[in-house]
Amino acid sequence: MPRTKRPLAEADPNASAGRVTRSKVVRSDGPKGKENKTASGAFESKKYSNKSKSLTKHAEKDVGLEGYANVSDNRLGWLLLDRGLPYGRTDERDVMIMRLEISDALAKELNVPLYIPPNFPPSKADKSKAEAINLRKQTDFASKDNSKLRSMLEARKLSTLGPRDELVQRLEAHPMVDYEQYTTDELSAMASRRHMRTGATGPKAVKIARLRMNDELKRDTGNTPEGELYGCISAIEMFVGAFRREKNRVLRGDYSFVKSFGCRPAPTLKELLHERNLPESGNIATKLERLRKDDASRGTPFATRIFEKQISDARSEWERLRVKFEEFTGRPLRCVSEDLNVENKLHQRDPIYNAPKDDPPVKHMVNYDWRSSHWADRSLHQLLDIAKSRGMPHANGAPKAAMIKWLETGELDYEEYYTTALYAMCSERNISVKSAEK
Fold this sequence. Notes:
mainly alpha, SAP domain-containing protein, SAP_dom, 18 helices
């Protein structure tokens, strides 16, 4: 029978054939045929410990004063009943929270495992409330862009002509759209016109749900010029906020803005030095040291004004784009960043991206508990030198976990090497392989 382990230097006559068993790379002077049961036990123990920590963290997140304060009365009642605590329909909210907090404190004092609240499905009242909020966002037509109004009229098969006031009145007269009247292909085409990602994905019910979510937005996601305008204004708002933060930091003697690309560190440092009549020569570290010494010599922080010009210039550009924005959209501009943040939160509810996925479990390249090893605190370069000195074949083509496994057990699976090392092994043995094979 063939041996299950062999030195790497020994040629594998079946290297190109498919095999069920996994080949090993064995250290010639290491222990052969032994399993590291201690490491395996530690690995299983650590997995259980991590799972316990995860459950504890989840429980701590769900309970406590702040958590109970955000819980509905209906859910508080279920929590009390689930713990076997007194509960009556006429109980005050504060009383229910107090009972739960006393229960938590007693469990902690008695060293009882933290309680993990069950995940109850939303009640009909909760669903109705959420649907009412979403409907209000869909039908708040006065807050939407002109292009969005026309897109919504098109979905209702109504005229898209006329001034903004007429468009709003037309939609208010027909607030709801019947997406059921469209075929699946027509819904996909509608989603494509709105530039919705993966618009053709999912059954008809999912397409309708996504289109209704898109109706909650203020802008027409299919209008590219307006989308670019949104992006420009959002960038300016971001820079104005950054300039204000950097100004406040400099007033506190914090010059961390030199790591920020947006605030132009080199010109800004030069302006700060020039403003204080300090030498402008030297590298960044020298300039920063010069500024800090000047701060230390002053009784009060130096009131710099160099950021005022940057903020003023950005505000002027924002004002110029505001006029263009209101001309295009027909509505007043307050803060584009807030609108885009709402849009991002809406995408998080997208049924396409929130659908459960049957992804296979993650398979680690090296299934070995190397973190509990006494080698774990060594750097990758240190381990590489040690493994090479002890004769590990192709040590530079193995990850840290693989090197520790080889040092402790004297064996290593071929699958635990990087592909580059496997290419080198095949080349040494004159085995031809395709570039995509491992």
